[in-house]
Amino acid sequence: MIEYIKGEVIEVVPAQAVIECNGIGYAISISLNTFSAIQGKKEVKLYIYEAIREDAHILYGFYTRQERELFLLLITVSGIGGNTARMILSALSPSELCNVISSGNDKLLKTVKGIGLKTAQRIIVDLKDKIASTGIDTAAPVTSVIAAANTEVYEEAVAALTMLGFAQAPSQKVVGLLLKEEPDLPVEKVIKLALKRL
Question: Is residue 143's pLDDT more than 70?
Answer without folding.
Answer: no
